[in-house]
Amino acid sequence: MGRGKVVLERIENKINRQVTFSKRRNGLLKKAYELSVLCDAEVALIIFSSRGKVSEFGSNTSVPETLEKYWQHRYSSQFNNIAEDDTQTLYQEILRLKAKYESLQRSQRHLLGEELETLTVKELYKIEKQLDRALSQARQKKTQLLLERTEELRKRLELEQCFQAAQGLGDPNMEAGNEYNMPPSQANHPLQQPSIPMGYHQFIPQERVTEARVNRGANKRTAGWL
Hints:
Layout: H1 14-39, E1 44-48, E2 54-58, H2 63-111, H3 121-169, H4 172-176, H5 184-187, H6 206-225
Antiparallel strand pairs: 1-2
């Protein structure tokens, strides 16, 4: 009589579960060893029991070295796949940018009046509208800059005038001599006669000149007689 079919489900009996675990664990470790010997394969096997006890098997090297080799292989494979996808994406982006660059170069030549022979009336009208719009914007910008410059110069001139006025009002010497519109030295002495500047010749009548000569001659004769 043959064995019945084993149902793959959790064994409820704790003792039977532990016995089954031990048997199958040993059988799995034996199969891993046989695979490494027969096929010259690098095998690493790690088993954790329900209680947390670990059982492991390493064929040629230790289990940590085999795991490290596994992670390196996995990451390199993922990186290669990502690199291939990125390369394809970058190539498509380069083609798109190249086409856009050529289109911009062609539009710039058209705006400069070059290569207009192959354009239709509609395309020429579109270029004309673009030039009119650009010219209008340039004029508006120029007017705005001129107005801003004019306003800046006006404010600077007002500041200079205010500064000069503040200097004139704050000078005490100018306030002291402002009463008679004279320098400060003469304003402090109102009874002092103004001095005659150098190079000034006072007018003397002819009669006074003749009288002075006669008096001077009489004085000389008197001095000689004495």
